[in-house]
Amino acid sequence: MSNRKLLSIEMGRISADDYRSRPGCGIVLVLDNIRSAHNVGSAFRTADCFKADKVVLCGICATPPSAEIHKSALGAEDSVPWEYAQDTLAALRALKAQGYTIVSAEQTTESVKLDAFVPEAGRKYAVVFGNEVDGVSQEAVDASDFSLEIPQYGTKHSFNVSVSIGIILWHLHSANNL
């Protein structure tokens, strides 16, 4: 038997309505001033893959409907719940009040290396991802319960934000079997 690619019809994809009717995985993505609509679209697509609870778009951030978001989201902006918040700190306070642990995806003096982090079973996480140039704002880092850092070994010490989202969501999901 040959190793063949699956056809789309064989993957058991669900509709956007079915997606919204199923429980989330306990993870919210908070996009802190992510200016590229393509990065926002990629965040939606990755959020859909891991069944994130929602995406919170903050500050200067592209929002649906947008042809540029759709180009990379491939329709995930229609399945994943989302909301817009002008103020990232207000959004984080609201998520904290809903029982989410606030985590900044950022390199800080006290950040926890992602490969050493084991998510607590049953805990809900709101992960803040920052601007393409400046990262997560210092105010959002200060409002976070802790920061997660993706270990890196090259000269750049930064991933594109959409890559960071994929790495961290995969880790949280797989480490906790969410």
Structure commentary:
- There is one protein chain.
- The chain is α/β, with parallel strands linked by helices.
- 35% of the residues lie in helices and 19% in strands.
- It has seven helices and seven strands, in the order αβαβααβαβββαβα.
- It has helices at 16-21, 37-49, 67-73, 76-79, 88-97, 138-143, 161-176, and strands spanning 27-32, 54-58, 82-85, 100-105, 112-113, 124-130, 146-149.
- Strands 3-2-1-6-4-7-5 form a seven-stranded parallel β-sheet, with helices on both faces.
Estimate the helix proportion, in percent.
25-40%
Contiguous runs where pLDDT drops below 50 for at least 5 residues: none
Discrete helix count: 7
SSE run: HEHEHHEHEEEHEH
Oligomer: single chain
Please report the total strand number as a whole number.
7
Comma- or semicolon-separated keywords:
178 residues, alpha/beta, 7-stranded parallel beta sheet, globular
Topology (SSEs and partners):
Layout: H1 16-21, E1 27-32, H2 37-49, E2 54-58, H3 67-73, H4 76-79, E3 82-85, H5 88-97, E4 100-105, E5 112-113, E6 124-130, H6 138-143, E7 146-149, H7 161-176
Parallel strand pairs: 1-2, 1-6, 2-3, 4-6, 4-7, 5-7
Helix pairs in contact: 2-3, 2-7
Structure in a nutshell:
This protein has 7 helices and 7 strands, in the order αβαβααβαβββαβα. The chain is of the alpha/beta class and 178 residues long.
